[in-house]
């Protein structure tokens, strides 16, 4: 966690941005190793809390 926080602060980006970049980088590396063509774009759905989001999990 501290490593991710350090990257976030150093590059002035969000925590989620750092995590997503790591995940996508890993996906790309895996695809290249498996000789799978890497597409120009990949769509992803990521849950993001809105302002005033409750501190616990809920279905809205």
Architecture overview:
With 60 residues, the chain is mainly alpha-helical. The chain has a domain at 2-33. The protein is 48% helix and 0% strand. The chain has two helices and no strands. The protein has helices at residues 2-11, 15-33. Helix 1 crosses helix 2. The chain is extended. It starts with a helix and ends in a 27-residue tail after the last helix. The mean pLDDT is 87.
Brief digest:
The chain is mainly alpha-helical and 60 residues long. It is built from 2 helices and no strands.
How is this fold's topology laid out?
Layout: H1 2-11, H2 15-33
Helix pairs in contact: 1-2
- Give the total of beta strands: 0
| SSE-based structural type | mainly alpha
Share in β-strands: under 5%
Distance between the termini: 29 Å
Overall geometry: extended
Mean pLDDT across all residues, rounded? 87
Low-confidence runs (pLDDT<50, min 5 residues)? Answer: none
Oligomeric grouping of the chains = single chain
Count of discrete alpha- or pi-helical segments spanning 4 or more residues:
2
Roughly how many Å is the radius of gyration? 15 Å
Please give the share of residues in helix: 40-55%
| H-E order | HH
The biggest beta sheet reads: none
